[in-house]
Amino acid sequence: MRTSIRLALAAPLLSLLAACGGDAAANANPYERGLDQAKAGDHAAAVASYDEALADLEPGAGTYMEIQMARIESLTHTDAPKAAIDFLEVADENSELVKPEDFMRVFNWFVQVKDWGQGGKIADTFGTAYPENEELAQRMDTRIQEAIDAGEVSAAQLEMLEGLGYVSTQ
């Protein structure tokens, strides 16, 4: 009798576990899986999931830019130079989909990870691509200068910023 009670209790529990996760999480939509991985701090896995989600999408597809931006945000945590290169390539190849605000979002991600050199690349390209948007360009430039003045910039990043014209060699 005890065995039949255990079996009676075990069946609903197993069904509940299967419905709440189990293999369902592993088979989730790759974009959603990437979001969950990024939220958990596993940015390398998130990038892989976003790459999987992008594999079958055309650049003009509805979620293409959303997935690309999520991928680039995770890349800022794992490979900042690649994140900058990839964003600038996406922006160049999809100029009709990329907005000035996207540059600001990417710049802010570099600010969060304190990679001022890559942030400077984004700001410099933004200033060239959107000369009419002086206010946003000035906000980026000001934030970079504040970081330099506060000593938040590493020597290597300072060298990059110098090459972009943010630092005088005098």
TrEMBL record:
Signal among keywords: yes
UniProt-listed PROSITE patterns: PROKAR_LIPOPROTEIN
Entry superkingdom: Bacteria
Signal peptide: 1-24
Signal recorded as keyword: yes
Keywords: Signal
Record-given protein name: Tetratricopeptide repeat protein
Source species: Rohdeia mirabilis
